[in-house]
Write a structure and sequence with these properties.
Blueprint (H helix, E strand, L loop, with lengths): L26 E2 L2 E2 L6 E3 L3 E6 L2 E6 L9 H18 L3 H12 L6 H14 L1
Antiparallel strand pairs: 1-2, 3-4, 4-5
Length: 121
């Protein structure tokens, strides 16, 4: 056993467990890091847990397109959000009723869906 302060966390393999394809997504540099891992480590890997499965990706920075169509869409979205927040409670009522029919939606989602559909067609 290492003395206190002489052992660096995450540099020692615990146990003699063999790394298999099943548990390789739970390892960092061959060191098991847990049963369920979420987050990024050292800007090298991103760990994600979804629907009972562990996923491991290489670290990346997503692109931020600054193209004319993308900027136009962002402007439409911003205008829609401003319009949604300006609605009175009475004006929100039809959207609230429609949102109750869609699982996981709220009035804002329904309004934005309608607004963006109207703007794009």
């Amino acid at each position: 056993m290492a003395k206190f302060g002489t052992f660096k966390f995450g540099t020692q393999k615990f146990g003699t467990r063999e790394i298999t394809p099943f548990n390789q997504n739970m390892c960092y540099d061959g060191i098991p890091v847990g049963l369920i891992v979420r987050r990024q480590i050292n800007k090298e890997y991103i760990y994600r847990y979804c629907k009972g499965h562990q996923f491991k990706y290489n670290y990346f920075v997503p692109t931020n397109p600054q193209t004319v169509p993308q900027q136009a869409w962002r402007a439409k979205y911003t205008a829609g959000n401003t319009a949604a927040l300006a609605l009175s409670p009475a004006e929100r009522e039809p959207y609230i009723k429609r949102a109750k029919k869609k699982k996981g939606w709220n009035w804002h989602n329904v309004f934005m869906s309608d607004y963006l559909w109207a703007q794009s067609h």
